[in-house]
Design a protein that fits this description.
The complex is a heterodimer of chains A (182) and B (1005). With 182 residues, chain A is mostly helical. Chain A is 34% helix and 1% strand. The chains are: A mainly alpha (182), B alpha/beta (1005).
Amino acid sequence: MQKSWMLGAVAMLATAGTLAFVTQEPAEETPAPMAAAQAPNPQPIQFPHDVHAGTYQMECQYCHFSAERSVDAGIPPVSTCIGCHTMIPGEQQPQEVAKIREYFDAGEPIPWVRIHKVADHVHFPHMRHIAAGYQCQDCHGQIQEMGVLVDPDPAWGKGKMGWCITCHVEQEAPRDCTVCHY
Amino acid sequence: MTEGIKRRDFLKVLGVGGASAGLAGCSTQSAETLLPYVVPPEDITPGVATWYTTVCRECAAECGMWVRTREGRAVKVEGNPNHAVSEGALCARGHSAIQGLYTADRFAGPRVRRNGVLEDISWDEAETILAERLQGSGGNVLLINGPTGPTLSDIMDGFVSTVGGTRVEHDGLSEAPLREATRIAFGRDVVPHYDFESARFVVSFGADFLETWVSPVAYARGFARMSGEDHGEKGQFVFVGPRLSLTGQNADEWVPIQPGSEAVIALGMAAVLVEGGADAGPYASLLGAYDAANAAEQSGVEVEVIRDLAERFVSNGPSLAVGPGVAGQHRNATAANLAVHVLNSVAGNIGRTVHLDSVSSSASARPYGEMETAIGAMAGGNVDVVMVHGSNPAFTLPPASGFVEAFGRVPFKVSFASEPDETAALADLILPDRHFLESWGDSSPRPGVFAVQQPVMQPVPHFETKQVGDVLLAAGTRIGRPFGPATTYDHLMARWQELHSVSGDGADFEAWWRGVLRTGAITVGAPDAEAAVSLREPDAALTYDVPALDGDGEFALVVYPSSRFGDGKQAGRPWMLELPDPVSKLTWHSWVEIHPDAAERLGLRKGDMVTVASPHGSLDVPVWTYPGIREDTVALAMGGGREMAGRYGTGQGVNPLQLLPAVAEQPSGALVHLATRVDLTPTGERYTLATIEGADTQHDRNIAPAIALSALGHEDESGYGEDDHGLSEMQLIGGFVPVETDGEPTAYPLPGAQYGDYANPEETPRWGMAIDLDKCTGCSACVVACQSENNVPWVGEGEVAMGRDLAWIRVERYYETVDAHHAGVVDIRHLPMMCQHCGNAPCEPVCPVFAAYHTPDGMNGQIYNRCVGTRYCANNCPYKVRVFNWYTYTDVPEPMNWAWNPDVTVRENGVMEKCSFCVQRVRDTQNTAVLEGRAVRDGEVVTACQQSCPAEAIVFGDLRDPESAVSQKVAHERTYRVLDELINTQPGVNYMKKVTFHEVASAAH
């Protein structure tokens, strides 16, 4: 089931002249989370979630700003990155931090490679789950420990609805199909 | 004052719109990027819709619009409830604006004709060429434009006076005779505003006020409030005309008059009132000559009918007479409009239901006579540069007008069309204007009502466009004669700052302006109390008699504006092409309407091709037989037969203007539409009409029953009544035993049934709908609203002909009583049929994969990702509301895919679908309510069909809550459920019977 409207983004960006950023291929085989630190990072900027969310214990929603009020968690605008990194050059990978400035000055978005995705026929409202008191880690794994973000098996990437349903059964949340599929 | 633009500077990047390359099924292992904003726009949250107000420009009525945008893209248009004209409703044509915005056929940028071929050029180059031509024009510039707002109108005036030349307004649908008649009758140069809501007795002399006439959305709303049954009362409506339009189909009585005899009937009625002592002022002597006897003689209507009509017109007041409208514009059209004014005046309706305070600036009231002069000037070589905006005279004028030839003689022709049309095809320079959803403007549809047309998104980046006002202003600067500030926006601001000074109540302009943008429209003061208006001595010589028609053909030809295409503007949009015509239920192609008796006489059946020939031209078109047209009349809809309307509309149907002469009616100068007689000659060929109509009568099935007004309050409650349609006889031979149900048939869930597993079933709502068939006019706005909201694609003419249309709502039209030979009762029923969300749904148990199933909250769910396409459910559905994707119809050309609603799955081939009760809106509302820690309020969930309905016929809500609005409707004595008593489906959709003034054959249903 394709959401063709999304394809519009391609052309829209083409006119904005951003196709210069060629998408890198994602990792072929997703390694187990344990081996994550050694996995090749497909991202255009080697962003360490473990430093931000782990070492400095930043709130997830500082960057993923719309998770509590929208179906979408939100990807931080480049201005959010540069907001801190104007003053913080980056201790371990200053060359990566420098890339942020390049994107920002060029007025271009950072083409992050998508890791977490539910299928197009699934409607996952982030805000309902946040409101119910769930932690981001409950679905996304121990992000604060990941240097390179990987797809935590089996929640993501295998299209397994059973994982969702198991939780919905345990928590007595609705199991009606049209809660997610429409 | 640049915030308004600045905040939409988000185009450079999208929110989290994924740029995906070939997503496959459930897999997430595909190269996909997430693109953040560089700097986030302040009022956009990814995943949350942002709404902007603006003004609809699809016709001259200028209804208020709300536009739903997601991540910076317009995805749905709706009516703006704050707007005094449209009050939140929108018609089918208005909904199609989103397809006009995203149509792939729009011009990608400016073009210039070099060696006979149009070539792409840059805007700078194009504007340089324009400036050079204007420099050398010697002041002979002609600007032709369609309906515009006041600001753009001012800019155009400024431009024309700067470069030297003239400006002519032209719209294919002109109410010039009405305006001229108002001037003659009352000395007011306006198109009146009619208050249908306050009337109790309405007579339309052919005015199609539910479809195209003056302000159809506002009038449909007023009419539904007038004619819808309320506490045992309802207003009456009589339609006087040779053909039942959709408006006519909603009448209680039909007086089928000879075409062109509206004036004599109106005068005859007025004469009867004068006999009874009413004052006709200076028209007393005229009414002496045009009495009821004369009317009867000229119109073929019995004199008693006219007398009876006249008497009821005053005794059932307040009354209202309107007409004749574009389809009735004949050679004496001004006189006919004047006669209706006289009737209204004699009956005391002026100031009560007829208000003379409307603005007169709209192009829809401009006469063709002005174009005639312009054509003369072009043909005579007196125009050096002609510019056309918002108007397509090469199509909307009859070929006989000579426009195309005259236009061709102008040395330099400029078109501001944003998509191809017949006029742009002749142009030397094309400067594509922005779509109205991308540009600034304003409107003042009535005195005191002002609305802002604000851009709701950045221009669609596939098309390099420039707003016409900015181009004109820049042209003035380039030729060294700037007039006023540099942009349309500056002019708009200047205008609204003026408005602020009179109505801002001392508030800060910025704050006031933000408020205006938020509400979309303001009403400045109450219109001045109307001074007593009385009839004046006419200052023009007029003829009221039935006009002669050209030729000696067998049939009078009625050419009427299409409720789907207007004058042809929307004829390139697949939504509108595939929308079944509310009268004929035909899609895509044109047809000629003919009475079944006349067809039989000629040996014609539906779908037979005929040549329709007038003294002015001929065309081939299939026949569609229609009992709602006089036997001596045939009818063709305007708007079809476009030659340059993009990939969908080009070559669809025929253009009836080819059969018309180019005659300007006197004194209004309007183009004459009822002008000629025609002959029909069978060609021997057949055409497969793409219709959605299964049957045009109910075959005694009582799908859309009615109840007489007199029977309300003491209806026989024995279900199907005396006549059980032979059921008891059949039961004698065995079988046909009704299903046994425990408890009340309307109980939900069924006793013993286990629907879902919500934690708290008592508090789970049962969503349901009530549709008042006494209000529903069959206008079909809901159909297009649903398509837009739910990503319902179009399938094409051939697929429709095979019964594969995908619309989730089908507006059924059943004839009960239609008599084209005698004045009397007309009873045509309209019923919007969609998934009934049965409590005991036949589709559910037959699905082998549980794709069709029942939700705990009472909806019939359809899970696309489960569906394997067996189509068992569709076969078992007694309502024929399930539709199947035989192909992937959603592969649409870029950027038409931008119109998809991101909240609804886009379906592929092999999937069954149907009305979902807008489940995405239900879930969205529930999410909001949970976040705010409260229950969903009654009326908070508004389905797309309900939102758009001009007649306010649809109510949606929780059937379990006895206090909800929908439960109140369900408890009404008129409420029934289609086929429920026969097959025990227990639908969640409840219909309220139409109320008639005549006795209904089967009283119980």
